[in-house]
Amino acid sequence: MIKRDTRFTILLLIPVLLVLIAYVLYPSLRTFFESLHTEGGTSFQNYSDFFSQESKTNLEALWNSVYISVLSVIASALIGIPLAFIFNRYDFPGRGFFSTAAIMPIVLPSLVGVMAFMFLYGETGLVPNALKDLFGLKNVPFKIGGVSGILIVHAYTMYVYFYMTVSSAINKIDPSLEEAAYNLGANRFKVFWRVTFPLLTPAIVAASLLVFMISMASFSAPFLLAGGYRVLSLQIYFSKLNGDMEVAATQSVILSIVSIAFLLFMRWYQNRKDYRMASKGIGAHRSEVKNPILKWVMVLVGVIAVIILLLPHFTILLLSLVPDGTWTYQTYPSVFNIENYRLLLQDPNIFKPLKNSLLLAFIATFGNLIFGVLTSYLLVKRKFIGKNLVDILVMIPWALPATVIGMNLIFAFNEPSIFSFGNILVGTFWILPLAYFIRHIPLVVRSTNAVLEQLDDSIEEASRSLGAKWFYTFRRVILPIIMPGVLSGTLLAFVEAVGEFPTSVLLYTISNRPISIEIMNQLRMFNMGQAAAYGMIQIVLIAIVLFVSNKFFGVKAEQSLS
Question: What domains are defined for the chain?
């Protein structure tokens, strides 16, 4: 006879498995089977064509994706790791302000960030033209674009992951470990290489993995800056536009394999050695910079860095105040007012994309909240066969690029199925919230796991022993304790859904077009001010979420994104 507790675990497990099988596993399998379709039946011909010498475009796109991703990891590490050491190991005037400003790129959605760099450093950008006028040059001295442009944007937006994860790791290192190494005669380099660096390895590996995955999935920067330079995420989009669905499926599978392979490799590398500290609980300390020249050089460098970091944000704000039609042939905008924001609030057609994004994100995030909490509780607090498999299924949406998730849903739900209740979802309102929901499942599950793992089982057992039912115990005892972690992941999922672009561009319809698609439409019509106004809305939303998470729930950005 099955025990009551086991029956209850099975009861909770059934809906979780149904969702994961129906909307994560099934779409992925449909894409794989679609990639096997050929004119002659079913075979691996599409894969053979992909890697053949005749298919140079696909091979080049695959190589370009890996190449840019590796360079993005290196560039982001070279910026983020030194900044983490400077701001967490040394004390100098303005350090607190500079360290806060260092995470500001995180509030720029990918599309908005690329747009800001175009306005700032593109051929018609403000900075190149200002230098041209200042020095009386015939042509602009520089412009970003192509591979270098993509790498600059990636380094700016992604170094934050290295900065935050390494900063968190540095603050957990017991200073006595390094002091003991110094006392035994080790020099600075040896202490760093043999003591400090091994303790930072998990954080560096985690950041490298995150940056590589985001770069492999990058769509906005190649789409707007690459010109004729192809990456695999763009190839999938163009194949879909051309109606080559079998080719798009093959490209999606290849991109998935590369991303998952890198994930497995980095986890293997991280687990080769186990680095732990036997700490006495002593907190990290910062050394005061006493050399006055070095101190003020660091301050000056910090001021310059802050200006560079905040220029994209100020550029979007400035351009959002430029009424459409007033900046045409002029080098710089000359008219500023709040007309774009007035139209955003008063014109139903202009307000609709914002309304759509908020509604789509709310529906998806509400689903993430319910499903994420239930799944996390099962993974952390319940024992059942196949737990590792469920955990893998939960993490698949995090490992898959957004374009792949979009293609998976197209192949799975472009015809009636049992999982769509006999309806075709592609081309309907519901396909976008479903895509956002799948994409952000790991955010809520991971953030909830972190707090549930710290919750002593005896708390739940005490409530149950006093006669409380499980639902009452969960609602009145467990949920209030884990709420900070739950809400941090939920709020992050919400703002990510509001700014989601790669899946939206594959799945949207005219009636449910979200704000990211409308930004692209406004850019195509050269309505820079309205596009920037939409961008500012996204920036403010993300900033508010990060502030609320930190202020009211005590969850910092690095905890939400870890």
Answer: 1-43+335-562 (1.10.3720.10), 56-279+286-320 (1.10.3720.10)
What is the rounded CA–CA span in Å between residue 523 and residue 324?
Answer: 11
Token pair 């994104």: residue: 561
Query: Contact 154/68 with Cβ under 8 angstroms?
Result: yes
**Location of structure tokens 């796991």:** 449
Q: Is 205 exposed, middle or buried (0-12, 13-18, 19+ CB in 10 A)?
A: middle
Largest CA distance in the chain: 88
Q: Is the pLDDT of residue 538 over 60?
A: yes
Q: What residues are paired with 287 via a beta bridge?
A: 90
Structural contact between residues 166 and 207, judged by C-beta atoms closer than 8 angstroms = yes
Amino acid at 449: N
Give the predicted TM-score (pTM) of the model.
0.85
H/E stretch holding 47: helix 45-50
For residues 510-522, give the mean pLDDT: 89
How far is the C-alpha of 297 from the C-alpha of 309, rounded, in Å? Answer: 18
Q: How is residue 526 written in tokens?
A: 């050269």
Encode 228-240 in three state secondary structure: CCCCHHHHHHHHH
Query: By percentage, how much of the chain surpasses pLDDT 90?
Result: 21
Place of tokens 């802050």: 306
For residues 46 and 246, the answer to whether their CB atoms sit within 8 Å is: yes
